[in-house]
Design a protein that fits this description.
There is one protein chain. Helix content is 34%, strand content 21%. The chain is α+β, with helices and mostly antiparallel strands and 71 residues long. A two-stranded antiparallel ribbon has the order 1-2. A hairpin with a 6-residue loop joins strand 1 and strand 2. The mean pLDDT is 84.
Length: 71
Amino acid sequence: TRYPVLLEALAEATPPDAYVTSFAVDAAGKTMTLTAYATTDQAAASFKNALEASPRFSSAAIQVLEPATDP
């Protein structure tokens, strides 16, 4: 896995009102799991849509959406 390319694509997909709080890549380098914070539901949806639109990512999904304070 080319991590600099992956991180650059992730930075490009992240809207200004959201940020990644953690990420992990499986041992095979095929699956990445993100934890992110967004200020609004719209920002969360925008982030998901940007990931889906990127050729570097596939199968973007929001698994948990819950109110939280900024970590």
